[in-house]
Amino acid sequence: MKEDTMPRGAQPKVAERESRMFYAAIKLFLENGYEQTTTVAIEQAAGMSSSAFFAVFANKEALLLKLTKWMYEKQFAITDRLLGEGYEPEMFHAVEPSIQMYIAEKSEALRELYVSAYSYAATANYIHQMVTDKLVELFSATHPQYTRQDFYELELATSGMVRSFMARKCDRNFTMEQKLRRFLSCSMTIYGVAEEKQQQVIDRVLEMDLKSVADQLVADAIHQADEQYQEAERKGKAIEAARNG
Question: Which of 96, 210, 195, 88 is nearest to 139 (CA)?
Fold first, then answer.
């Protein structure tokens, strides 16, 4: 039953359950990865009974989609803040996925989580559509001959590269600098950025402390998840108290 068809008194309870399971899932995904986290484990971490998960989410991928939207909105917002007003389109195109690369490198659980987001149909489609909208905004002036469909098809190409580069763990034979230089060069080539401009952008990106940005973004996400979980738990107890009172 959809939330908007439920009795008014049931809606806060559904929202509270969704919030508790969502933020409990974030903790589990970060600890164990997406694939190893079961819906039963999420229910238990949220302090709920068996089958509670499917009363709120259609499946685990639906929860992953909610998390993907949550994280990508944060990534886009922080990139905007970092670059400030009047930034060059190429810089946003380079900085935002670079932050993703640093996040994925923090732990194998995060790497798997991001790779999963690029692998499942619903989450991948969300990423493609969101990034396509941004590409139209960034590059339509320099590529007036491109339609939105053109940018969408180019996004399919670049997102495949993002997934592949994130999935490959860095080591001394493939450092983060090498990863970013190669990925950014390939990505900007697809959009017709001149080699000289590519090198300028890559050098500027590497001068930025994006590792610290990624660390802070993840820390803030975990902190927000903790706070929101506790708030949802308080609301849940209040609902039960009102019902029993």
Answer: 88
